[in-house]
Amino acid sequence: MKKLFLIGGMGAGKSTARKALTDEGLAWIDLDQVGHEVLMWDTVKDDLRGAFGDDIFDENGEVVRSALAAKAFATPAATRKLNTITMPRIEERYTDLIDGFEAEGKPAVVVEYSVFRNRQQSLAYGADVVMAVLAPLEVRIERAVKSGFSEEDVRARIARQITDADRIEASDVVFNNDGTPDELRNEVISWWNEYKKTI
């Protein structure tokens, strides 16, 4: 089963590209979603409580992601602490999902990966193809603000992500999303129609 990793900065259009592929029948994994899922595991909650304190939980004992983010992204050291707790669990869940899709005989899976760093030190070491979706910075900020984030939050998140130059270097395929969503969809589907002939 081919693993197609989809990377791109906040607001670049990863979800549009992913939907184009899943509409073609591909399985998919959103690693952000997997990250949210593992925050509900008791073992993860225990570790987070030890690292970041009780005030990142609500009255029901669930992680308040905004409160966790405020602490976990305050310094590089705090971010490393968060990653040490969550990344092994994310990898565990990711592996289970991949095994499930392989057992179902899926030809390919799209993996949406917003915190991609490089192909050597991340889940993407197993990627068959890394696809980058790029868009101009101001366009990305505008899109993210429209979807409900504050501009300050968007700029802070983007500042913590790798640059588009790094993404291009790490990628096999680059989609420039500086037009309409339909243009991006058509470009992605056109690529997939060619790529699937090689599977």
UniProtKB/TrEMBL annotation:
Catalytic EC class: transferase
Pathway annotation from the record: Cofactor biosynthesis; coenzyme A biosynthesis; CoA from (R)-pantothenate: step 5/5
Keyword Transferase: yes
Coiled-coil regions, chain positions: none
Reactions catalysed, as given in the entry: 3'-dephospho-CoA + ATP = ADP + CoA + H(+)
Binding residue positions for ATP: G11, A12, G13, K14, S15, T16
UniProt entry keywords in alphabetical sequence: ATP-binding, Coenzyme A biosynthesis, Cytoplasm, Kinase, Nucleotide-binding, Transferase
Entry EC no(s): 2.7.1.24
Stored InterPro entries: Depp_CoAkinase, P-loop_NTPase
Statement: the UniProt record of this protein carries the keyword Membrane: no
CDD domains: DPCK (cd02022)
Highest taxon in the source lineage: Bacteria
GO MF: ATP binding; dephospho-CoA kinase activity
One term under GO cellular component: cytoplasm
GO terms for biological process, alphabetical: coenzyme A biosynthetic process
Subcellular location: Cytoplasm
One protein family per Pfam: CoaE
Family: Belongs to the CoaE family.
Function: Catalyzes the phosphorylation of the 3'-hydroxyl group of dephosphocoenzyme A to form coenzyme A.
NCBIfam families: dephospho-CoA kinase (TIGR00152)
HAMAP family: Dephospho_CoA_kinase
Protein name, per record: Dephospho-CoA kinase
Gene: coaE
